[in-house]
Amino acid sequence: MKRLLILGAGTAGTMMANKLLHQLDQNEWKITMVDKHETHYYQPGFLFIPFNIYSCHDVVKPKRDFVPAEVEYINSNIEIIEPEKNQVKLSNKKVIQYDILIIATGSRTVPEETEGLKDAGWYQNIFDFYTIEGACNLQKFFKHWEGGKLVLNITEMPIKCPVAPLEFLFLADWWFTEKGMRDKVDLTFVTPLPGAFTKPKAAQILGSFLDDKNIHLQAEFSTGRVDHANNKIISWDDKEIEYDVLVTVPVNMGDPVIEHSNLGDELGFVPTHKHTLQSKNHENIFVIGDATDLPSSKAGSVAHFQADVLTENIISYIEGLPLEESFDGHANCFIESGFGKGLLIDFNYDVEPLPGKFPLPGIGPFSLLQETKMNHWGKMMFRWIYWNMLLKGQELPIEAQMTMAGKIK
To answer: What sign does the dihedral 57-58-60-61 (CA atoms) show?
Structure first.
């Protein structure tokens, strides 16, 4: 029997296991998944924890709940991937041979990459919100904080969900307004980008939201180190920004096994064909989600669209057919803007976010690049969709390829 091995049981890996189980002949193919963690996190929910919208318990479930019984699930660390032998070694020295390998090992935050970031101030007045530990500690901190300079800094790109830092600041503006202390809180967004977002048109609109909410923007600031003793972040060219509390987005890197296996770039992301999702270096290895080095966003919606494309290409590869170059970098992101409203952006490699209606032209019910209550509820409803449909590989009414229908140029 042939084996399809999936490394990683996060969003991307779990979707692929569920989708491929119904596509492959189970008398011919065995699907095996390996992951070192037993707990699945709804990572978009981390954003809401500091503001008491979600509790720390609302975003966790056992990974095995979403892995089909027919799929072999192995809970283990991965020691090394050896593509020249078509095998993977686990930390218990067990060796797994494969015919096809899907790398879905995701990305992680690495605060240790920035000098001083994880010193004495860590989880005292320096927090992240891209981990469950950081979000829950920040929730406790905000309960008793009396105000001051709150600085949110993106250390380096790329990062998971590029809109999340903006959402955090928009929610902070709402949260401190609701608490009657917004006048006591100075909010500053520090980014290495030239504007508020990676896409210029969206950056202009989102930048205007920062202005309207009295959130200061410090662009083109590349964080070199943190002086926790004096509460300062210092750029590589020696610019300084003071803070009372620092909410940081640390350096994002791929899984350590990618580096140990010499399969990645300098940040540990795997070189991947941007349209087929096949490894650039090994024809029987495919890559999905945050593990890729693609110029698309590292976000759950992107992994969803990639999964549709990759499922078809895995079948084509097995049948000896040419792979379809059909992944277009499609990303679809709700942006929580506070006060019960939100925005929505839909874009790909070549097309920037545009205004219009989504997903039905002229009808919506969601509005692109426009702040509406419906967009907020779309964001909040997504948690149910994630647990009950997305992870289980069910079809959603959104095409993998971006469409111009409903968009206004």
So the answer is: positive
